[in-house]
Amino acid sequence: MNSRKPKNASQEKNEKKARQISEESNPRPKLTTGDVLGIAHDEAISSRLSLMWERLAELFTKQSVVVFSSILKGSEDRIMDYLSLLFLASSKKIWLFQNELFEELYIYPGEESGFSTEANPPLFHEMLIKSKTEISKPETEDSSELNSTEEISLHENTDKEPELTVH
Q: What is the chain's pLDDT, residue by residue, as a tens digit (167 residues)?
């Protein structure tokens, strides 16, 4: 038995108007397919970064350096793992080091990781000191900035330290 009374035209009209007012008072943004995919993509990257950082943080509690090839052993997506490392490096949570192109990639704790960086290679510490001194240098009247028409070229000397030459 249905105890509902049949609706008359004015009741249906009132309910429709109430729904319309409710929708107007609580507007939802109209999302395109691209918006939804973009949000999903951003969430996937954030999730992947979190997972990668959790793995590395666990390893950094046991060892001072992680070898990238060891991470790849259980990897489902090597490219995304590599991209995650690049994002983590740009946020200074890790420091990446490679002796030669296409050789093993070594992952060290970065200055923003919360882990000790004492075991990092000397180059890490040299670069860190250099970046901090460059930031703290006051601008002087003598310091000249390069304008957009000047060329910069790098010449390697025998010590393998790049030498900056301005033409």
A: 555 556 667 777 777 776 766 666 555 667 677 766 666 567 778 888 999 999 999 999 999 999 999 999 988 889 889 989 999 999 999 999 999 999 999 999 999 999 999 999 999 989 888 888 877 666 655 544 444 444 444 443 444 444 444 44
Rounded CA-CA distance 58/125 in Å is: 23
Rounded to two decimals, the pTM is: 0.56
Nearest-angstrom CA–CA distance, 129 and 115: 18
Q: Which H or E element spans position 97?
A: strand 94-97
Exposure of 42 by Cβ count < 10 A (0-12 exposed, 13-18 middle, 19+ buried)?
exposed
First-last CA distance in the chain: 94
Rounded distance between C-alpha atoms, residue 112 and residue 24, angstroms? 46
Counts for the chain of helices (H) and strands (E), in that order: 5, 5
